[in-house]
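The authors assume throughout that readers already know how a fold can be written as discrete tokens. Each protein is reduced to its one-letter sequence and a matching series of backbone shape codes. I therefore recommend that a typical entry be quoted early in the introduction. For illustration, here is how one protein appears when written out as sequence plus structure tokens:
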Amino acid sequence: MGRLFLVTLEGKIYSCKHCKTHLALCDDIVSKSFHCRHGKAYLFSKVANVTVGVKEDRMMMTGLHTVADIFCVKCGSIVGWTYETAHEKNQKYKEGKSVLERFKLSGPDGSSYWVSHEAQIIRSEQEEV
């Protein structure tokens, strides 16, 4: 399969919570106001040590986008998605940027973001209705 070469980032980094592979720098955060299935997500101008999956059109809260899931290059965990094309004019700023799900990351201080038990209960109750 070959030898795996990883980029080592310097500074305050976000890393894969499973294998600790460096994924992005704090300085490259464009927005912290994104959301995913597991809660918070951050938009980054660039990420490292990821592989890109198949492009697909997805209807998201902000409209139709062509996106591709991104995976940690070391352990293969899905860590977020990258925006290939934004079909809405006011969403074009997302093109070429990537979203990392906070739930899948360890923060610069080594902390992990966990979905709270209350959020899981609320989600379960909403699904029952």
